[in-house]
Recover the amino acids of this structure.
């Protein structure tokens, strides 16, 4: 691993020869980066932001800069300068990366998008297709929240992505927790094994927190969700006029931003719709190691639906089953036998993007992530079937390249946000030990999800905030019962494996008549992972001014051949989602699916 550039290079003691060589390489790298930046500036390349080094040229707060080239055809993109700390202008500025599609009809306002994570880039969501889906009445504005992607300061703790990859490779951070067997969760060997792995987990989280503190210092203070809400208010002032309503559409972690927004600034809330609800009370008041028991309450139901649908589809469409109509318990038992084998001996995977191994924890964690995306269930079945037959490459490749991740530092960006939102430990007695972590994983398996209770961390890498020392200028922790002029829309699936309807019901209960809960009876993380025409129309209608009745349910819309298409069929018929509807609905549904596709 190479050394980390620090601010006091000059004061450092004389270097040993290999160390000097590394520094020379580092300067060489800086030179190449500078040349490339100049080239980028010259050519108008939009993938880079040129940092402002000189305080004499400090950017003016509120300045909006538009670039000439954007990621998505038909959008304008650029950045806006905001105060880094909304309560202390002396701290300097941050630059928020933005992308916009302007209304072509009389404009209702700006609609801010957030695609979750935290850590996902929001700029690609602003597409002409999405704008058209909402009737071209909104300025659609996607942005990268604090610390993320092209917004600066950016979370970047390690010297290189290779260093970070090397740090995580083949550790519990990359492979998740292996449970010896779920057959008897009272067996003390289960908890012992998880406590041992938790020791490694804690050490790595601690190391990574210390590296971030050293390389980023005070910059880490300005990444929290409350700060992002202030940014949206600031941008609404600039784009729509002082005190304008803030309109918002977010999924998954975006539901946290939505709940923060309406409860921090209720008088500013306009049209706010959130999909795939994360419980904001737990988020803001309980330590992350307790979250899996809250998040996984619908996953067993989803898993059973996956297995039953696979069996119904039959072995050609879903190779995990041996005959059409096989009882789901038989598939489940075959998979458990495979997990038990892997728990004793991981599988060698010599020929993947990076050679390595597959542990039982990694495969359970991957299956959990696949359950979030019904349009990938066919891929899941083929990758798992290959692993059962001895070829782990498809699964390991999926693990190494989960897709849709804006930053190779995704996990660190996520910590930078969540660790400012959660309550800081009051004292060292508050810092969970490996025994606490192991006990909680066993409790989650026993009480909530035997199959996945120890594996949420693979897709949702939380925890370790106890070692994060940065504190936000503002932390919001409720109350969550604001009164709104226009009720917010809350969307929940009945089988969302990680953001259960239980959380939608909870915030609907807190917000009362200032909210409407609408329910899609189906599987997947966020309704947009498998949108029914019914829900697509409810959401569209909400932004057009029609409030649905609270408790409206959209019935299941797809059959087993939709979830598991025949591999011999030409093309992917799900590209049209099987709707026999007008093309604008298809376009909007696709834009949404693309927006909320990622984990988190
Ligand atoms: C599970 O393990 C516990 C503790 O070792 C033991 O008392 C119990 O009999 C086991 N249960 C089964 C069904 O094997
Ligand atoms: C909102 O919640 C707070 C804290 O739980 C409570 O004190 C307050 O009475 C509630 N307000 C309303 C209008 O229900
Ligand atoms: C809204 O509908 C849900 C689901 O039917 C129900 O549980 C909840 O009590 C209703 N909420 C309100 C505020 O009426
Ligand atoms: C599933 O739905 C599609 C589209 O509605 C239909 O063409 C197909 O026959 C159905 N398949 C089964 C097995 O019911």
């Amino acid at each position: 691993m190479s050394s980390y550039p620090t601010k006091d290079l000059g004061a450092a003691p004389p270097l040993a020869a290999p160390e000097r060589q590394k520094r020379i390489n580092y300067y060489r790298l800086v030179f190449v980066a500078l040349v490339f930046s100049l080239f980028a500036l010259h050519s108008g390349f939009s993938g880079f932001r040129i940092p402002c080094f000189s305080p004499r040229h400090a950017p003016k707060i509120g300045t909006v800069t538009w670039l000439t080239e954007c990621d998505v055809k038909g959008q304008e993109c650029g950045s806006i300068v905001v105060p880094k700390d909304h309560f202390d202008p002396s701290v300097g500025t941050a630059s928020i990366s933005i992308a916009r599609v302007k209304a072509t009809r009389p404009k209702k306002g700006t609609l801010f998008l957030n695609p979750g994570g935290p850590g996902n880039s929001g700029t690609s969501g602003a597409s002409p297709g999405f704008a058209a889906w909402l009737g071209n009445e909104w300025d659609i504005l996607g942005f990268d929240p604090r610390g993320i992607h092209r917004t600066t300061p950016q979370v970047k703790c390690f010297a290189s992505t290779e260093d970070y990859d090397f740090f995580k490779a083949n550790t519990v951070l990359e492979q998740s927790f292996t449970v010896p067997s779920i057959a008897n969760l009272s067996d003390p060997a289960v908890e012992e094994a998880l406590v041992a792995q938790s020791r490694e987990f804690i050490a790595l989280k601690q190391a990574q927190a210390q590296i971030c503190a050293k390389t980023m210092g005070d910059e880490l203070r300005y990444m929290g969700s409350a700060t992002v809400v202030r940014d949206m208010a600031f941008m609404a002032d600039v784009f729509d006029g002082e005190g304008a309503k803030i309109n918002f559409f977010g999924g998954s972690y975006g539901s946290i931003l939505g709940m923060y927004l309406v409860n921090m600034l209720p008088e500013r809330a306009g049209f706010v719709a959130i999909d795939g609800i994360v419980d904001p009370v737990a988020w803001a008041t309980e330590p992350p190691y307790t979250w899996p028991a809250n998040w996984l309450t619908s996953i067993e139901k989803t898993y059973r639906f996956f297995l039953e649908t696979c069996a119904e589809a039959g072995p050609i469409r879903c190779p995990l089953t041996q005959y059409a109509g096989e009882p789901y318990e038989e598939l489940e038992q075959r998979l458990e036998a495979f997990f038990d084998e892997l728990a004793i001996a991981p599988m060698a995977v010599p020929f993947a993007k990076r050679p390595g191994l597959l542990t039982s924890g990694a495969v359970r964690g991957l299956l959990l992530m696949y359950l979030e995306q019904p349009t990938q269930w066919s891929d899941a079945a083929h990758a798992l079937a290959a692993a059962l037959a001895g070829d782990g490459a498809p699964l390991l490749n999926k693990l190494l390249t989960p897709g849709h991740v804006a930053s190779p530092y995704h996990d660190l960006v996520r910590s930078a946000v969540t660790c400012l939102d959660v309550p800081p430990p009051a004292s060292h007695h508050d810092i969970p030990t490996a025994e606490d972590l192991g006990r909680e994983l066993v409790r989650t398996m026993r009480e909530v999800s035997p199959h996945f209770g120890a594996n949420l961390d693979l897709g949702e890498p939380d925890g370790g905030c106890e070692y994060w020392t940065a504190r936000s200028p503002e932390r919001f922790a409720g109350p969550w019962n604001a009164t709104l002029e226009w009720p917010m829309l809350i969307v929940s699936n009945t089988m969302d494996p990680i953001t259960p309807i239980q959380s939608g019901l909870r915030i609907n209960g807190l917000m009362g008549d200032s909210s409407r809960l609408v329910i899609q009876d189906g599987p997947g993380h966020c309704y947009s992972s498998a949108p029914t025409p019914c829900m697509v129309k409810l959401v569209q209608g909400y932004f057009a001014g029609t409030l649905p009745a609270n408790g409206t349910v959209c019935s299941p819309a797809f059959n087993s051949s939709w979830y598991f298409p025949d591999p011999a069929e030409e093309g992917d018929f799900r590209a049209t989602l099987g709707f026999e509807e007008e093309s604008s609905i298809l376009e909007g549904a696709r834009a949404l699916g693309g927006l909320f596709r990622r984990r988190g």
User: Anything to note?
Assistant: The radius of gyration is 24 Å.
